[in-house]
Every structure is written in structure tokens, then in C-alpha cells.
Specification:
This protein is mostly helical. It is built from three helices and four strands. A hairpin with a 5-residue loop joins strand 1 and strand 2.
């Protein structure tokens, strides 16, 4: 599911959850079992609230009166409906975070796979180049051919043929002694 579709779905779920929350509130006022649950829940919530406030203010001996039924039903139903809305919104946030984390993990795994493939290709190319270098070591320049930039030994074998020496040219300094120096040549095409 794309990011836009996910956000629209989350917005639709939040919008639908508001009428459901109101239906929970009305159901709490009409259903006897649900009313009793809301009354008990609201009185426990009220008791905890009063005790915590008393401890914060330093009053230890507090007499707690229970809420009347209408107020208890209203507070219990409101709390349950708000809890429902909060749980819907929270679950959507957790789902979106999970989805983005999974997407990032999949991208990292794909990148690791790509790196592994490229490393294996590099090893394959290295092996092929080693094979080419062995064949070049066996190569002898034919009689009568005198290359200008390739150094030919007395036995006819070619030296300076590896990839790091392709741009090396033989030059001489003022005393006539041969010296190899790096020159900027056009890049040779890759093998």
C-alpha cells in the first residue's frame, strides 16, 4: 500500500471511529450491564484521582464519596470512548512506524544483496584478468615488428603489459639512460 493510500485509510479510520465512540457513549447510558460497568469504572477512577490529589497536597485522611449514577455513567462512558479513539489512533501510528521500519530493512537487505553481487562480479573480473595476464606473459612479439610504446625484451616477450603500467612510456633523460615515466595518454577501453 502506498504512503498516500495509507494516510487516507488512517484518516478514514479516525473519522469512522468518532461515531463509534459516540455510539459507545449512548450504549453505556441505555444498556444495564454496560451502565453498571461504567459506574464501577468511573467510581474507581474517581477514587484513584482523589487519593492521588490528596497525597500531592499532603492530605492523608480523605473521605471519598462515590459519584452519583448519572455523573458516573457520563464519566465512564466518556473515558471508554476517549480510550477507544486513543487506541485507534495509537495503533495506526504503530502500524505506520512498523511499516516504515520494515521498508527500510527491506531496502538495506536489497542494498546488501546488490553489494554482494557486485563483489562477486569484481572477483570474477579479477580472475579473468589473471587469466589474461598469464596469456600475455606467454605472448611473443612476431619477428620483424618493432612496437613503439611496448617494451620488448631480448627474448621477444612483452613487459609492462599489466593494467597499472599501460600509461607508462619509456623516455630518456639527458645522459641517454632509459627511464620509465608516467604520461597522460587517452584511457584505453576496459577489457
Amino acid at each position: 500500500m502506498s504512503g498516500i493510500a495509507l494516510k487516507i485509510t488512517a484518516l478514514a479510520i479516525r473519522t469512522i471511529s468518532k461515531p463509534i465512540s459516540k455510539a459507545i457513549t449512548t450504549r453505556a447510558k441505555t444498556n444495564d450491564l454496560f451502565r453498571q460497568y461504567c459506574i464501577n469504572f468511573a467510581n474507581n477512577l474517581h477514587k484513584t484521582d482523589v487519593i492521588l490529589r490528596g497525597k500531592l497536597l499532603g492530605n492523608e485522611n480523605i473521605r471519598i464519596r462515590p459519584l452519583n449514577d448519572n455523573k458516573a455513567i457520563e464519566q465512564g462512558a466518556t473515558f471508554i470512548s476517549e480510550f477507544f479513539l486513543f487506541s485507534v489512533a495509537g495503533s495506526l501510528i504503530f502500524y505506520e512506524a512498523y511499516r516504515s521500519r520494515k521498508k527500510a530493512l527491506d531496502q538495506r537487505e536489497a542494498l546488501a544483496d546488490d553489494i554482494a553481487v557486485l563483489q562477486s562480479e569484481i572477483e570474477y573480473i579479477k580472475e579473468k584478468l589473471r587469466g589474461v595476464n598469464v596469456r600475455l606473459d606467454d605472448y611473443r612479439v612476431p619477428e620483424g615488428i618493432k612496437p613503439k610504446y611496448v617494451k620488448v625484451n631480448l627474448d621477444g616477450s612483452v613487459t609492462g603489459h599489466s593494467l597499472d603500467q599501460r600509461n607508462m612510456l619509456p623516455t630518456t633523460n639527458g645522459d641517454g639512460a632509459g627511464k620509465t615515466e608516467q604520461k597522460d595518454l587517452k584511457q584505453t577501453p576496459a577489457l
